[in-house]
Amino acid sequence: MNLEHICYGCFQEKPDGFPVCPHCGFNAEEEQPFLALPMGTLLNGRYMTGKVLGVGGFGITYLGYDLTLEIKVAVKEYMPSGLATRHSDKYSVALTGRGQEDYQNGMERFLEEARILAKLQNTPNIVSVQNYFKENNTAYFVMEYIDGMSLKAYVASQGGKIPYDQALTILMPVMQALTQVHALNLTHRDISPDNISITSKGESKLLDFGAARFSIGDEKSVSVILKHGYAPEEQYSSKGNQGPWTDVYAMGATLYRCVTGGLPPDSIMRVHNDTLKKPSELGVPLPPQVEQAIMKALAVKAEDRFSTMGAFIEGITGKTPASFHHRTMAVPSGQTAAGSDGKPGLWTRFRRSHIGVQITALVLCVAVLGLGVWGAVAGIGALTGGKAEPGSSDGPSGTPFDITVQEPEGVDDVALQDYAQEYLNITMGIPQGYAETESGSGAFASSDGSATLQVGFYDKAAGFPVYTLSDVEENAEKYVQYYIGLLESTNITKQEILGLGYRTIGSLNAYLIQFSATESGGTTMDFLAAFIECQNGFGCYNLIGSYPRGDKEAQAEIYAALDSFRANGPAGTIYQRFYDERIPFQFLYLEDKGEIVINVAGENQLEMSNSKIGLEIYSQYLSNAQNKETLLDAIANETTHTSGVELRGARWESKSGGIDWVVDGYTITEEEQIAYMDVYGGEFDDYVFLILVAAEAEDDLLDGLLLDVTNTIRPVK
């Protein structure tokens, strides 16, 4: 084999000069995802890595080639996304914070997992492990390569669901194999259709034990590993009691997904309001014992589930009937999803009704629709010097600059403390000695206040939207002007762009601008502005660091924090970001919840709807006499005096996304039709938000349009 002409997608020779392989269609010029090793990396003097097969919370799996046996293999690399990154050499692994002990413990468990699975290599339906070793400050194990397709892909090819008997034919061998895994006190923790493969010979194979850990005697967990829809409640906590019952839930969810075509609602959302429907309620007829077994496996509380995989199998086969009464939220008789009968959609009908008109009018009366906080930042003088002439660049084509930001020495030696921000879905390291200036703000300052660091979403205040890095590139000078303008307490006499360019931060692309500002008193500060693409490729994170000119230690600290940045978007969820200059907030919405109609109805008013749910959002700049409670009180006082409108219960509170929410729930009866509405009131950064959510089914209020509106809405500055 001529390794110079090898295809890293199938390890066959291809003609010289052809980026696309004629055998498998793999394009060698496509960028490897996340923190993947360069293709062609040689490990243990024997295994050559190719394309990435999969990425999980604990590792990366590559297609590999065994140069000794001359066969394709799969190579798994220990790479916990919350603890580690890749050194600048692109091979060795570096820690992102102070998690040395957690990292080493995790690696030992990773290798112990390999040792145990190696003992299972003769167990049918489990991928076999052939070798394991340490290298590049991490660990690897080599598995058999499965030539086939995932269960996820297979179900998709069959129209999104398969008959229950076919699903059981595929899954039952895996379930039986899991009984042997559990006998070794090992829990898989990541069972889903994309981790079950169907070989070209029709065999089922369970893959990716990267999230596995011992069920007994292993209280320390490196990270919470979960996959939405498949993860039981106990997996949402690092201290959750996990065991075979955890895999039972995931296998039940996998079976449910195969036969119904849909995922169960997230277990964490089912704790207080369980909306899980039986397959028969979704029009999928199953033998009674099969349906009962699936529903028992999907019980929210572990004590209500089968305790072992063997018991689950017996429940499915009817050997031991499953006795379990599952609670669901039934839709009233005769009620259908909005729009399914050809009538106007829910939100259209609601807005036309006297109730909708009345509530909207009331909200508009109490809302002061005014100017944004940052509209006053203007009149900053022009930049002086520093901009390079158009030329070549290491970044994408069209980059008008040839200056690149250079990383200072000593970055790898900086001690970092872990920091996580839920509403941003990010983690990163903050230098030791830095303290958060305001709880949850994402702004930090050094002990002497000379160096600062702030992280958030992109800013609207610079005067233009930012959807991609090219938007940043085209407006580099405007960004410098904007940040100089925020230094209102200083007398800036000189501003200068020092350098800018593209680089990779973790698994994400970023665009960096380095500039300086000098006060009239002679003090000069250097600034580093990083714009990091969201993992969906839509929108940018924004990280700003500042430090005194010439302070090498502070400079290294800022760069170390930057390099540790991680975007942690929910697994298996695809988001889109909505942004409009006319409204003072932005939010994420689920891409797969059906067609969404968006209407910017006013300066501070937004309407969104699909076939199941309608949503209206208002923002108001706070005055001393107004807050979320007073606004909700006004709405409640008016609506409850309207015929057909009743409060569903007492007002409740919710804290998510860094915002304290107060919520009123209403039941609306009009012309023999029943609808439901929740009104949220929340305050953030001198704004109050009012969110009206209406649906014809109560369980669609949170599940229909947005995954969690209260967790994703953020004001734009």
Q: How would you explain this protein's 3D organization?
A:
- The chain is α+β, with helices and mostly antiparallel strands.
- The chain folds into 4 domains: 31-144, 2-Layer Sandwich (Phosphorylase Kinase, domain 1), CATH 3.30.200.20; 149-317, Transferase(Phosphotransferase) domain 1 (Transferase(Phosphotransferase), domain 1), CATH 1.10.510.10; 346-371 and 584-715, Protein Transport Mog1p, Chain A; 375-567, Protein Transport Mog1p, Chain A, CATH 3.40.1000.
- It is 21% helix and 28% strand.
- It has 14 helices and 34 strands.
- Strands 26, 27, 28, 29, 30, 31, 32 and 33 form an 8-stranded antiparallel sheet that branches. Strands 16-17-18-22-21-20-19 form a 7-stranded antiparallel sheet, sandwiched between helices.
- A hairpin with a 2-residue loop joins strand 7 and strand 8 (138-144).
- Helix 3 packs antiparallel against helix 4, helix 4 crosses helix 5 and helix 5 (288-297) runs antiparallel to helix 6 (309-317).
- The termini are far apart.
Mean pLDDT: 75
Shape summary = globular
| Name of the CATH homologous superfamily of the largest domain | Mog1/PsbP, alpha/beta/alpha sandwich
For the termini, the CA-CA separation is 58 Å
Put simply, the count of helices is 14
Strand content: 25-35%
Structural class based on helices, strands and sheet pairing = alpha+beta
Number of separate domains: 4
Helical coverage, percent range: 10-25%
**Top CATH class of the largest domain:** Alpha Beta
